[in-house]
Every structure is written in C-alpha cells, then in structure tokens.
C-alpha cells in the first residue's frame, strides 16, 4: 500500500540529508531542490488525485507504479541537471 505521506517524507529526507551540490547556492535553490525531490518521491501516488491515472480507469492497474513511469521524473531530473552543466564528475567533486 502506497502512502503519500511516506513518499513525501522519503523525498524530504533525501533532500535534507544529501550532500551539498555546487548548484545549490541560494536558499531558494535549496528549497526548490527539496520540493522537486518530494514531487519525484510522490509521483507514484499521483493516481490518487489525477482521475485518468486512477486504477479504476485502467482495469485496476496502477500505471503510476510501472517501471517506465517510475523512471520518468528521475530521468528528466538527470537531463535537467545535465543541461545546467552538472555532470557526474562535478556532482561528485562538490560532495
């Protein structure tokens, strides 16, 4: 059973306890990063609030828990970080 609160706490924990990255300079960027991590963490629970994602619309299947859907936002995050100039080496160097 999924939990919106549990998933959001997981995203918040990752955001708060993760190493400091060089692109997180201001308080606003830190806050935005934590909010984004919470959104990524609760993405599987979007089917509770978005009607066309609800299991009743898909014969009981929770498509937001599929492997493709689970990888969508993290992949977009990696692409976004890459566009911002944050590659793996620079992220590890800043840690």
Tell me what the structure shows:
The chain has 95 residues and is mainly alpha-helical. It has helices at residues 4-17, 27-42, 67-83, 88-94. The chain is elongated, with a radius of gyration of 15 Å.
Please summarize what this structure is.
It contains four helices and no strands. With 95 residues, the chain is mostly helical.
Give me the secondary-structure topology:
Blueprint: H1 4-17, H2 27-42, H3 67-83, H4 88-94
Helix pairs in contact: 1-2
Beta strands, count: 0
| Helicity level | 55-70%
Strand content: under 5%
Rounded to an integer, what's the Rg over CA atoms? 15 Å
Uncertain segments are none
For the termini, the CA-CA separation is 35 Å
Average the pLDDT over all residues and give the rounded result.
79
Structural class: mainly alpha
- Elements, N to C (H/E): HHHH
What can be said about the biggest beta sheet? none
Count of helices? 4
Shape type: elongated
Seen as an oligomer or otherwise, the chain set is single chain
Key terms:
mainly alpha; single chain; 57% helix; 95 residues
């Amino acid at each position: 059973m999924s939990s919106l609160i549990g998933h959001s706490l997981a995203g918040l924990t990752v955001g708060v306890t993760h190493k400091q990255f060089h692109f997180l300079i201001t308080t606003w960027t830190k806050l935005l990063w934590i909010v984004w991590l919470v959104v990524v963490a609760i993405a599987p629970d979007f089917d509770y609030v978005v009607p066309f994602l609800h299991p009743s619309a898909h014969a009981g299947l929770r498509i937001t828990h599929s492997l493709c859907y689970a990888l969508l936002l993290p992949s977009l995050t990696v692409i976004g970080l890459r566009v911002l100039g944050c590659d793996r080496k620079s992220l590890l160097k800043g840690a």
